[in-house]
């Protein structure tokens, strides 16, 4: 394997960096301070789309740039490195769009993909339910066909971004009598449809990122089903693989590791020690391993393969290393870590890092659900065991 990028790919990276430099200015960040906690910015989505960055690896006929997954990875990596506000378009670009390319019909591709590539459509993921979290096969939101429509009733929970998204990528049960994996379908539901109610959920930090989504006799055209009816489990499995293989978590690990290393070196922390230094070195190696595993997934995608258990390995290790880094940071910094980097000047040369140094306060809390979201660590180990190692199910 050649771990180097080509000259053309490095030129592409330089272009992304230049876009970031000219777009994510101090004035831009000030304008975003009153928005969605700096996570979601329709304005940034529009600017990235106009520059041709959103759908880097999509075919040109659907609004993409027609480049490879490697260029897409470079774009994602650079954006994540500076904490760019991508939540408005991230799920549409990284999960829904690739799934529609794989499973959607031509009409759906023409309808949704160009709009996503232009930053005009945002998606939330209607997956988990009050009684079906990681066990998605237990989803019980019903969709009953009635002529040219499905009537949808039920509830989704922990739905990120539903309060500002346009559409919901929704797992529904279309055959209640089938085995639970085989009676599911994937349905696109407009979040402004009559009968849809979005209820906010505040997380442990008091931020509004999650939601409950209620459906009461919601009418959805049958043309909104993606893939075959009752085969939604397989559509969603690929959607989750696209999510778990995201390179952005690698940049997050790097930032967290740099935070902990910086804290270890500050004299005011008073907690420097040889054992913590060695633990930092160990976590640095682990972060590099996660990076290489993520690059492996990208290499497979660029070669035309659809990774499966490989993304579970990456997600499992990344989420657990993330927790370990933040645990160590708290061990190094103590209460000082909750306050030390909360007031940095965005205009400085290290603005990207310093903006994210507030993770010294909330990163520790945010890392806790990291081994649950996108499929728990237990689910990932099952996938690795059965699909990767060929072990029998218990």
What's a quick, concise take on this entry?
By secondary structure, the chain is an alpha+beta fold. The chain has 13 helices and 8 strands. The chain has a 4-stranded mixed sheet.
Overall description:
- Helices cover about 45% and strands about 15% of the residues.
- It is α+β, with helices and mostly antiparallel strands.
- It folds into three domains: about 5-120, Butyryl-Coa Dehydrogenase, subunit A, domain 1 (Orthogonal Bundle), CATH 1.10.540.10; about 125-230, Butyryl-CoA Dehydrogenase, subunit A, domain 2; about 245-390, Butyryl-CoA Dehydrogenase, subunit A, domain 3, CATH 1.20.140.
- Helix 5 runs antiparallel to helix 6 (about 105-115), helix 8 (about 250-265) packs antiparallel against helix 9 (about 275-300) and helix 8 packs parallel to helix 10.
- The longest helix has 29 residues, at about 275-300.
- It is globular and about 65 Å long.
Give the tally of structural domains: 3
Name the overall outline.
globular
Output the CATH class name of the largest domain.
Answer: Mainly Alpha
CATH level-four homologous superfamily name of the largest domain: Butyryl-CoA Dehydrogenase, subunit A, domain 3
Residues in β-strands, percent = 5-15%
Structural class, by secondary structure, is: alpha+beta
Report the C-alpha radius of gyration, rounded: 21 Å
CATH architecture of the largest domain: Up-down Bundle
Main sheet strand line-up? 1-4-5-8
| Secondary-structure element order, N to C | HHHHHHEEEEEEEEHHHHHHH
**Alpha carbon gap, first and last residue:** 36 Å
Number of strands: 8
**What does the largest sheet look like?**
4 strands, mixed
Which ranges are low-confidence, i.e. pLDDT below 50, for 5 or more consecutive residues? 339-360
Q: What's the tally of helices?
A: 13
Mean pLDDT: 84
If you consult CATH, what is the topology of the largest domain?
Butyryl-CoA Dehydrogenase, subunit A, domain 3
Q: What quaternary form is this? A: single chain
Share of helix, binned: 40-55%
């Amino acid at each position: 394997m050649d771990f180097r990028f080509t000259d053309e790919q490095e030129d592409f990276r330089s272009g992304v960096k230049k876009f970031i430099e000219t777009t994510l200015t101090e004035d831009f960040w000030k304008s975003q301070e009153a928005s969605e906690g700096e996570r979601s910015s329709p304005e940034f989505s529009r600017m990235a789309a106009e520059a041709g960055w959103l759908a880097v690896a999509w075919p040109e006929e659907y609004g993409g740039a027609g480049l490879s997954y490697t260029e897409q990875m470079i774009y994602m990596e650079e954006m994540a490195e500076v904490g760019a506000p991508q939540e408005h378009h991230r799920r549409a670009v990284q999960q829904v769009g690739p799934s529609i390319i794989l499973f959607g019909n031509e009409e759906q591709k023409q309808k949704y993909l160009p709009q996503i590539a232009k930053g005009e459509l945002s998606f939330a993921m209607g997956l988990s339910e009050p009684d079906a979290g990681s066990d998605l096969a237990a989803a019980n939101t019903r969709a009953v066909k009635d002529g040219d429509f499905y009537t949808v009733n039920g509830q989704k929970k922990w739905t990120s971004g539903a309060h500002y998204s346009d559409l919901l990528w929704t797992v529904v049960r279309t055959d209640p009598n089938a085995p639970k994996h085989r009676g599911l379908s994937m349905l696109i539901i407009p979040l402004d449809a009559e009968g849809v109610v979005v209820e906010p959920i505040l997380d442990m930090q008091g931020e509004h990122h999650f939601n409950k989504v209620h459906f009461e006799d919601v009418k959805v055209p049958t043309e909104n089903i993606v893939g075959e009816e009752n085969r939604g489990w397989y559509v969603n499995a690929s959607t989750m693989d696209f999510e778990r293989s995201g390179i952005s978590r690698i940049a997050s690990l790097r930032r967290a590791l740099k935070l902990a290393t910086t804290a270890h070196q500050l004299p005011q922390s008073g907690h420097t020690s040889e054992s913590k230094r060695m633990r930092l070195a160990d976590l640095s190696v682990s972060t590099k391993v996660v990076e290489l595993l993520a690059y492996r997934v990208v290499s497979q995608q660029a070669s035309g393969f659809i990774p499966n258990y490989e993304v579970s390995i990456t997600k499992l290790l990344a989420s657990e290393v993330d927790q370990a880094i933040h645990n160590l940071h708290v061990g190094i910094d103590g209460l000082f870590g909750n306050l030390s980097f909360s007031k940095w000047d965005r205009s400085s040369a290290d603005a990207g890092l310093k903006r994210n140094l507030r993770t010294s306060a909330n990163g520790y809390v945010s890392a806790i659900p990291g081994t649950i979201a996108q499929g728990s660590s237990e689910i990932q180990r099952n996938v690795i065991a059965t699909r990767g190692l060929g072990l029998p199910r218990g």
